[in-house]
Design the sequence.
């Protein structure tokens, strides 16, 4: 089983001609509300990929529909608590090129206490995976607690913050980073090449497996001296929101199925390529049949 300690957000998505500039008032030409949150997106992607995932999260009582959506997709949700607090939400602008800018209100995602973390970890088996991102509180406590309990930790430090630099990251088994997160972790400039980022990550966290996702430039896997590159599929993006989460969910499901890392990268890349062609976060995550069909078409 994989346990995902992760955010659940309501995403308010505004389509705009360009991302709003300081001081500007801009009219949006489309508005939708959907399920999002890096945690929820990753759980949903893992379930759609056929993985076994139990989500740990908090949601305002009035938004139980979001928990039902996860449940219908096959996510175990008995650890998603409905609480008397506003749910986390995100204000997302998506421009005509498919790029986005996200403003987050953490809400219920920031209500976890030490006792909650103890209870959650106590209910797991050593050897299980714990996946987490950086949209819930308590990671400084959760990571050592989970490590001591024998859980294998996969961490996606998104969104990247100063606090991430103080986390005991060497206790993670697997790290998913994009260019911004890799640069933040290593202190390198954003525009250095992928190899430089990977070299620096190998120095900082020599025992940790790293997956570096680079959008159109594909994805890398690194463990010690072993490096693999997976090219991206050439597609036209309409909305990149949640594509990284889709990648992670599909990668973890393939890993859980004990596929070789090369296949995990390939499946995750195909899933992300499908996700960027649809609007929304959770709504854009493809089914396993869609991913299989794309991979079969690519193999021809
Ligand atoms: O990664 C995309 C997600 O980031 C969105 O769904 C939004 O809720 C923010 O958490």
Sequence:
């Amino acid at each position: 089983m994989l346990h995902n300690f992760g955010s659940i957000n309501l995403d308010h998505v505004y389509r705009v001609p360009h991302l709003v500039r300081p001081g500007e008032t801009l009219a949006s030409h489309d508005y939708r509300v959907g399920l999002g949150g890096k945690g929820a997106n990753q759980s949903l992607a893992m379930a759609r990929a056929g993985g076994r995932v139990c989500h740990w999260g908090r949601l305002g009582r009035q938004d139980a529909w979001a928990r039902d959506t996860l449940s219908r997709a096959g996510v175990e949700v008995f650890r998603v608590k409905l609480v008397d607090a506003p749910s986390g939400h995100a204000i997302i602008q998506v421009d005509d090129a498919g790029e986005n800018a996200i403003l987050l209100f953490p809400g219920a995602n920031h209500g976890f206490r030490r006792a909650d973390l103890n209870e959650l970890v106590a209910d797991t088996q050593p050897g299980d995976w714990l996946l987490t991102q950086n949209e819930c509180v308590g990671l400084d406590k959760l990571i050592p607690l989970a490590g001591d309990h024998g859980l294998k930790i996969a961490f996606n430090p998104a969104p990247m913050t100063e606090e991430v630099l103080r986390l005991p990251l060497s206790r993670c088994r697997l790290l998913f980073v994009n260019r911004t997160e890799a640069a933040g972790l290593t202190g390198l400039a954003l525009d250095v090449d992928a190899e430089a980022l990977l070299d620096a990550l190998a120095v900082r966290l020599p025992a940790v497996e790293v997956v570096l996702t680079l959008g159109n430039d594909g994805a890398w896997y690194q463990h010690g001296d072993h490096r693999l590159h997976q090219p991206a599929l050439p597609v036209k993006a309409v909305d990149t929101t949640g594509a990284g989460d889709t990648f992670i969910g599909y990668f973890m499901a393939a890993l859980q199925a004990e596929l070789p890392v090369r296949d995990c990268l390939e499946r995750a890349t195909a899933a992300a390529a499908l996700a960027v062609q649809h609007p929304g976060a959770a709504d854009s995550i493809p089914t396993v049949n869609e991913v299989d069909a794309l991979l079969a078409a690519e193999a021809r």
